[in-house]
Queue: 3 jobs
Job 1
Amino acid sequence: ESHVCVSKHNRPELTDSYTEDTWIKLRDAVSAIQNSTSIKYNLEELYQAVENLCSYKVSPVLYKQLRQVCEDHIQAQIHQFREYPSSSLDSLSFLKRMNRCWQDHCSQTIMIRSIFLFLDRTYILQNSLLPSIWDTGLELFRTHIVSDGAVQSRTVEGILEQIERERNGETVDRSLLRSLLGMLSDLQVYKDSFEQRFLTETNRLYAAEGQRLMQERDYLHHVSRRLEEENDRVISYLDQSTQKPLIATVEKQLLGEHMNAILQKGLWMLLDENRVCELTLLYELLSKVKGGLMTLLQAWRDYIKSFGGEIVSSPEKDKELVQELLDFKDKMDHVTQRCFQRNDNFINAMKEAFENFINKRPNKPAELIAKYVDSKLRAGNKEATEEELERILDKIMIIFRFIHGKDVFEAFYKKDLAKRLLVGKSASVDAEKSMLSKLKHECGAAFTSKLEGMFKDMELSKDIMIQFKQVCVRRYILLNTQSLCTSALGNYLPFFSTLHLSGSMVKLQEVCKLFYLGKHSGRKLQWQPTLGHAVLKTEFKEGKKELQVSLFQTLVLLMFNESDEYSVEEIRTATGIEDGELKRTLQSLACGKARVLNKMPRGKDVEDADRFHFNSDFTHKLFRIKINQIQMKETVSVASVQFILL
C-alpha cells in the first residue's frame, strides 16, 4: 500500500466540474483494473485525487459511487457461470474458472483499495456501520456470485467430486481446492454451503466402506491409513474447523459401528499370534472412540479368563501348567506395556482375570506351583544361573499371589523343602532363604516360621553328625543321618514300622539313637526309610559296579546274596515292605532301564505270582548307576537315613 502526501497549499479549488472530472478519472482507473487493461493515470495522482475529494467532504458520495461501480462489474461476471456447460466432464474446468474469477477479484480489490486507501482509513473507518473496501468486495462477490443457487451448488459439487476422486486414489489439484475452500471460508459460507454436505458424503462413503472391508485381515491398517489421509486433507486444503467433526465421522463409521465385530473377530487372534504392532494400533484407534477402551478392556479380560482357564482345567497338561502360566503372564505383561501403554485399568483387569481362572480348579494349581518351585530349587537343576533363578522365583511369586489355597501350597512346599534338606538335594541355601524371604514378605512371619525352623534343625543335625562320626567310626559301614523336628512338618508323613532292616542296619540305628537321645533327652527319634538310600557294590559277569539305590531297593537286592531267585511273597515277608511300595520297587529293579533283576514272566507290571532272579548278565557303560524308585502320584516323607554298604 502506498500513498502520497500533498501539501494542502497545492489542493485545487473544489468545483462541481472538478469533482465530476476527478470521479470520471477514478472510475476509468477502476474499470481498467477490472478489465485488466493499462491505467492511463499515475497511481500517486489517483491517490491524491481521492484525498482531495475526501478533504472536500464528498466522501459519502465517493464511497457510494465506488461501491456501485464494483457491484456493476461483479453482477456482470455471474453470466459466465450460469451459461457454463453442465456436463460432469466440465466440472473441473468450471472450478478453474471460478477460481480464476475469485483470484482476479481479490487482486483487483487490493489494487482498488490502494487507490482509495485514504477513503478507507478516514471516512469508512470512522463509520462503524460501513464495511471496508476489502469487506465490501467480499460482500459483493458473495451476494452476486457465490450465493447464486446454481453457481454455489455446482461449485460445491465440483469440490466434493474432486475430494472423492482423491479418496479413490486419483491425483487432484490440491492448490485449486485450497483456493476455492479458502474462498468459501473468506466469504463466510464454508460451513453452510460446503461442510455440512462434505460431512454427509464422508459419512455415506465410510459407512459403505466399513461394511465392505471390515472382514479383511489388514482392516486396522486401512482405518489408520484413512485417518492419516483425512488429517492430511485438513492440513492441505480443508478449513481447520472441519478436522474434529471429520475425524469423528471417520472413527464412528470405520470403528465405532464395527467395534464389537472387530474385537470378536480379531482381538483373540492378535493375542494368540502376539501381533504387537496390530494390538498397539487397535488400542490407539479404540482410544479415540467413545467407549472403545472399555469395550476392549472387557474383551481383554474375557480372553485371559478363557485362555488361562484352558491351561488350568487340563489335567493332562499338569506337568507344564506352571511354566505355561508363567509364559502366559509374561506375554500379557508384554502386551500391557508395549501395546496398552501400561494402562492401570488393563493391568488391574489382567490381575483380576488371572485370579479368577487360576482358582477355578481348587488346590491343584497351588500344589503344582509348590512342585515347580521344588524342581527349580533342587540340586541338579542346571537350567538357570543364580540371577536367572532369582528372576524365576520372582515370577512364581506373582502367580502365587493369585491362588486362594495358600495353605495347600504351604503343605506341599513344607514336604518338598524337608525332602531337599534331609537328602541334601537343595541346590542353594541362598536360593532357599531367598524364597522364604519372599513368602514371608507376601504372607507374614507366621506362614514361614516352621519353614525357617527347618534350617535351624539342619544346622543342629550337622553338628550332631560330626560328633557322632568322631565317636562311632565303622570300617564296614559309613552312616550319615539328617533330622528335622516333626512339629515343623505336620502329620501328613507316613512311617514304616514293619520294615525289616538287616541286623547291621538295626544295630547302627540303635547306636545312633542312643547317641542322639544322649544329646537331646526327652525327644523321640523316628526313622523315615522312604528317604533312605544306599550305594551297593555288586559283581556282574561284566565286572564290578556300584548301584545307587533307595533303602527299599537295598533290602530287596541284599536278599540275592542268600539265593538267586525269590517270589513276590517271599520278598514281602523278608523285607516287610508294604505291598504297593514293594511292587513299585520290584518294577524299578526288573522293568526299568537298569534291569539288575529278571522277572518271570516278562511284563511291565508286577503280579503276586511273579518270580525274580539276579541278572548276572547285566551290563552298563557307567561304573556307578543310579536306579530311580518309581514314585506314587503323591509321596510324603520326613526323616532320612543314608547307608553306604562297602
Note: The chain has 26 helices and eight strands.
Job 2
Amino acid sequence: MATKATSNIYVYLRNGKIICGLCNAFIDEIQYRSHVAECGMLDKDYEVQPALKVCALCGKEVKDLTQHYGICTGGNNPTNNKYENRQQPTITPMHASLDRLQVQNRNQQLDQNKSHVLHGNSSAVDLSKGSSHTLPCRLHHMYCLKCLQHSMNEYIQSNTVPVCHSTLCDYELSRYDVACLPLEADTIKRLLTCVKSTQRAQCPLCVFYVDFNTMNDFQKHVASCNSENMIPCEYCHCLYNIHRLDDHSRQCRNLSSSQQQQALIDFILPRTKYPLTAQQIRVFIENRKKTHLSLDPHSIVETLAEFGDTFPFEIPTRDCDVCMETCVYDDIFVFGCEESHKLCYGCFENSCTTKMTNNEILTCGLCAYELHEGEIKQLRVADNRKKQFLDYQIQKTFNTYVGGTQGVIRCPNQTCKWVAEARDPNDRFRVQCPMCGNEFCSLCNQQYHFRTTCQQLPEITQRWFFWCNTERGNYWQARAQQDANFRAQLEDYERQKAANIQRNQELAQRYNDLLADENYKAQNCRLCPHCRRVVQHLSGCDLMVCGRNYHGGDQQSGCGNGFNWSQALPYTPIGNTGPQQVANNLPSPEQQKLVVHEGVQCDACHNVVQGIRFDCVHCASLTFCEKCEQRSTLEHSNEIRNQQKPQHVFQLIARSLNGNNGQ
C-alpha cells in the first residue's frame, strides 16, 4: 500500500497571530491546525509542528516559559530570583449543592494547589537570552524580557496607563498583572502608581477575587484560604466553615428575608472581579430571583465577571427634593406626608438636627408633617444619635399635647417614654405601645379587659380568685349530690387539683396585689369628674389637671381637664369579702340546670352553654361552659404563662344575658 509523502509545515507567531507556512495567512493560534488542514494542500499529509513563539514587539524567537496566566511570585529580580510557572491550578468551584462529604474529598487536591501557589517551582527558571513573559490578554501576547522592561519603562516615564501593546492590544494591566511581571521590585512599585484598572486578583483556591495592595497581601490570603471546609448556608447562601455552619444556621433562620439577603450582599461585595456597590449587587440578586437563577455566591461572582467593569442593569435613581442631588433610589427616604416628599438621607438627618437645635418638633423636611417613631428609626445615623432623636421627639410630642386641652395617653411601663394624643379622653380602648409592646387599657392603665368596665374589673377578679380556690369544688359537690350524672365532673375536679396549684398561686398573688392597690387608692385617690380616671393629690393647692400637676410636670395619662380636688368624688374600693359572700351570688344547683345561654357556644365542646358561663375578660372572644371550664381554663392559663404574660381572669355569668333562664 502506497503512503503519501509527509512534509513538515512550520508556523510561527507574530503580534498575536500565527503565520501559516503554506499560504502565509495570519490566523488565530487556536485555529491554525484546522486552517492547515483546509489550506488547499489536501493532496499531502502534513505533520503540524508546535508554533514557534516570538516577541510581540521585536519579533525575535523566545522561549515559552509562561504559557498560562495564573498565580505568580511577583516583584522578581530577573537576574537572581526564581520565577514561578504561572499555571493556574485547576479546581472545581464550590456550589450550593456541595455537601460535607464532597468538601472533605477535595481537601487533598486543594492542599496540593495551595502548596503550588505558595512555593512554586523548586527549580530555577532560565532567564537567559530568549526568556519571555506572557500577558493575560485575550490573545496572550508574549514579550521578551528586554522589550517588556523597555515597554513598562515608557509607561512609567509618560505616567500613562500600562496596556499590553500601545497599538495592537488595549488590554489594561491590573495591579495583579503588574505584580506578576518579572521585573525589579522598584519598577513594579513605580508601575503600580500608573495602574487605573480596578480589577481584583482571583484566588486559585476559593475562586473569589481578592483586593490587595501588594503581592505579599495576596499570598497571605492564599496561605489562609480555607475553601476546602466552606459550604453554603441554606438560608443566606453565604459560605461558612463546616464547623461553624450549624451555629450560624440556627441564628440565620430566625432573620428576616431582607436581613438574609443583606448578609449575602455583604459576603459578595469584597469578592467580585471589579468593585461594585451594595445597591448594584442587590439589584443583580433581585433580578436572579425573578428569573429563578441560583443564588450561589460563586455563580453570582462568575456571572458578574463576564460583564467586566460594566454593570449589566440600570440602577433606578431620583433627585432629592432638597439638595437636588441624584441618588440611587435606595438612598432616598419617602415621608408619610400627603405629598410623599422624598429626601436623601443626608438631608433627612440635617433637617432633624436643625429642628432639634431650634427646639422644634421633628417634621418632614419640606412640610409640617410630624415624624413618627418608625420614620425616625429609618435615619442612617449611629444608634446613640438615633435614640437622641427619638427621646427628643417623644418629649416634644408630650409637651405639645399637655400644653393644649386634649388628653394624652402614656405607656404605664416606667421604663418607656411613649406618649400619644387621645382623640376622646373618656373613651376606653385597647392600647399596644409601639415602643415596648405593653398592652393596656386607655383609662385604667391595667391589662386590657373586654366587655367590662374598669370599675367592674376588681370585683370580677375577686370572684374568679375565690372560684378557682374553693368554690369550684363546693359547686361540683353540690351538683353531684343532686344528680349522679355530675359525678364525672367532680372526679375530674379532684384529679386536676394538683395541676391547679400553680395557677391558683398566681391568682392569689394577683388578688393580693389588687387588694393592696384598692386600699391605697381608697386612702389617697379620687375620681376625675370628667373622665372618672383615678387621680392622686400629692401636694399644693386643690387645683388639679387630670394627667399632670397643675403647674406642669409629673405627666401621666389623663383627659387634660381641670377640677378642684376637694370637689372630686372619693374612690370606692371593692369590699374585702370572703368566698361565702361571693358564693351566695351564684344560684343554687337546682336553679342552675335550667339556665341556657342561647346563641352562645362553648369554645371547647362547641355546644350551647348551659349552667354557669365563663368569659375571659382579657381575650376578645373566649367562652367555656361549666363542664369544660376547669380543664380548658387551665390549658389557657399554661399558654399565657408560656407567653410570659399576666394570668387572665374569667367572668362568671350565672344568668342568661338574653333573659332566657330556663329550658
Note: The chain has a mean pLDDT of 76.
Job 3
Amino acid sequence: GPTSVVNLMGYANPAQVAGGVHMRLFARAFVFEDTATEKRFAFVSADIGMGSDLINMKVVERLDSLLGEGVYTLENICISGTHTHSGPAGFLQYTLFQVTSLGFMNQTFTTFVDGVAEAIAAAHQGRVPGSVGMAQGELADSNINRSPTSYLLNPEEERAQYDADTDLNMLLLRIADENGNAMGSLNWFAVHGTSLNNTNRLLSGDNRGYASYLLERDYNGATADGVLPGQGDFVAAFASTNLGDVSPNTEGPRCIHSGLPCDAVTSTCHGRNEACIAFGPGTNGDMYESAAIIGTRQYEHATGLMKDAAASPLLSTPVDYRHLFVNMSDVQVTLSDGSTVKTCRPAMGYAFAAGTTDGPGMFNFYQSMNETTPFWNAVTGVLSAPSPGEVACQAPKPILLDLSGINIPYEWDAEVVPVQLLRLGSLFIASVPSEFTTMAGRRLRATIEKALRDEGVEGDIYVAIAGLANSYTDYVTTFEEYQGQRYEAASTIFGPNSHAAYLQLFDGLARDLAAGRPTPQPEGVAPPDLSDEQVQLIPDQVTYDSVPLGAAFGQVVSDVNTSRTYSSGDVLEATFWGANPRGNLRTGDTYLAVERRVEGAGQEARRLASSHREGRSSPRHHGARGGGSSDTNEEWQRVAADGDPETRFIYHRVLSSTGTPHPEGPLVSDRLALSTKGDSLHHSQATLWWQVPNATAPGEYRLRYFGEANMRLRGPQPFQGVSSVFTVA
C-alpha cells in the first residue's frame, strides 16, 4: 500500500502519517478443498488493520474474472486482518474510519483488493493433494490483559476455570503435500498488533508480520539467496483471534513522567489518560525491538508446534461452511432463563475517545467514563443526538457518538454484518467481524462446541476464532465487562447484549453445519456497496516530483560514514534526493537494497541474479527492477531489501529554502499539498537505514535506493542512488 501521506489505520491519530517501510505487508492465502464433495473455502490472513465488507465484495468480483464465476463467493472466503496498526488507512467504506485518513483512499483499497485476490487465485491454482497436521500449546510472556479490571467483572466461578486473564494457547495447522513436505502453516494466537505505537510512521506487519517473516525465511530462504520476503512457496500466517483486550506490551502501563503505576480503573495519571502508556519488552521501551521480541517468541513457539503437528494428523474432511448476513442493530436474543433482550443501534461511548494504554486518546476523556458531559453532548449532538430509547438500550454506556443517526456523507458504521463458520474436518473456524475480548472468545468457543456435540458431532472438536474478519464493527465484550465501560466496552457498538446475540447466531450456524442443513438468509439483508459514494480528499496520483536546482534524483545528500568499520548491531544510513514513493508502490519489489561486493563472483553472481528474476513478483510492478545481484557488472550481491526488518526505508521532505526536515503533519492543507506534488517549497528525501545483523559476512557493502520520479513533461522516470562503499568486519 501507499508508503507516504496516508494516515495509518488503528490508533486514529491524525498525526500518524505514513513515511516509509519497516516491513512489507502481505496477504497470505490458504485454500482447502474436499475432493469428494468439491466444496472449498479460502482463508486469508492479511497484514491490514481489519476486514472490510467492501474488500470482500470486490475480491469476489476479481476472482470471478480470474477463476470463473461462482468459484468463490462471500460465503466461502474469509479475509481476516492481522490487526497491525501500521498499515495504510482508507479501505473501509464507513465514515467513522475515514475521519483521520481524510476520506477513502483508493490507492490503499485497490492494492489490498488486488493482493488478496491474487493470493487466493495463486493458492487455488496451486492446489495439490495433501494433509493437515495440528498442534497446540501455551505461549507465555507474550501478551497481557490491558483491561484487567473489566476482566474481573466476569463471574468468579468462570474465571476460576482459567489460569490467566488472557488466552495463552496457540493453535497451529501444518499443511503438507502428499509426500509430507511442508507447504505452509496457519496459526491463531491472541495478541494485538500494537508493539509499534502511535509514533511509528513506517508500514509494518508488527509482531505477527515479524513472526511470519522468520518462519517463511526458514523454508524459502533469505534475500541473500535471491528470495525477497514474500517470495517462495512456503506460506506462514500468524492470524488474529479474540485479541480485544490483549496487548503485546508486556511491561504494562505506567505514568511516563513518574514511572509509577497508572490508575487501574481509569488508566490515567493525575486524571489524564495521555500520560498512561504501556511498553513492550524492548530496551528502554524501543518499539521496533519489542515487535521483534514478541514476534520471535511466536515464531519459536510455532516452530516447535510445527514439529508436533507433523506427527499429529488432523481429520480434515468434510470441508464445509455456513454464512449469514445479519442486521446486528435488531437482533432479539433469548436468554437461558427464557427472557428476551435486543441489540441496539450502533453507538460509541465516551471511553472510546480515551483510547487504550497501547495508544491513548486525547482531550479530557478517560476509560470507565459512565456519564455524559454537557460540552461533548453539545459537540456531538450537532451530528446526531440519541433518542431516549437508544440511551436506555445502550445503558450504562454514556453515548458520545450516535452512529446510527449520522448519514453524512454516508453511513458512519456497519449495521449489517457477516457471521461465518468454516469446517475443516474436526476444526471449526468462527469468523467474527470484530474484536472479541478474552472471555467473550472463550464463551463463543464453548457455545460452538456444545452445539456441535448436541447435534451429534463425535471425536475431537477444535474451535478457532478468526478475528476482525470479513467486515469490522469494533469490539465485543461480555455483558459483565460492558458494565465497566472501559475502552473495549465503550466500543461495543450494538450495546450490552451484543455478545449474547453473537452466541445465539453462532449456535445456529454450528447446528446447521453439523446437521448438514442450509442456513436461511433473510431476504434483503446485506451490507451496502458504497463504492460510488466514497469521498476522497487525497488524490491517488502524484502530479510531479522535483529536486533543488543543481541536484539530481538519487544524488546523495548525506552519505554513510566510510572512516570506520561496522560490525553486528551497528546502524548506518544514507540520505538521497528522492521522489514521493506513492508514485510507484514497487509492489513485489523493494525501495532499497543492501549489497555486498562479491569479488570474482562469476557464475555465482549470475545464479543469484537469475533466481532473483525468476522469483514471484506482482504483475502490477512498474519500471525496471535494477540493482542488487542483477547489476550489469554482476559483482554485487543483494543481501537485504525493504521487506527485511533490519532495514528501514524512511521518506521525508525538506524545506527547499533551508534543507531542513519538515515532518508531515495532520493538517489537511499540508497533506493535500504533499500528496500531489513536490512543490516549490518542499522536496523529497529518502533515508536508507540498516542495522547490521548478527553473523553478517565480512566484506565491502553499499546501500542502493530505487525510485521513480513523476516529471512534468516526461512522465514517470525511474532512477537509482548508491551510497559510498563501507566495510563490515
Note: The domain at 555-601+632-728 is CATH 2.60.40.2300 (Immunoglobulin-like).
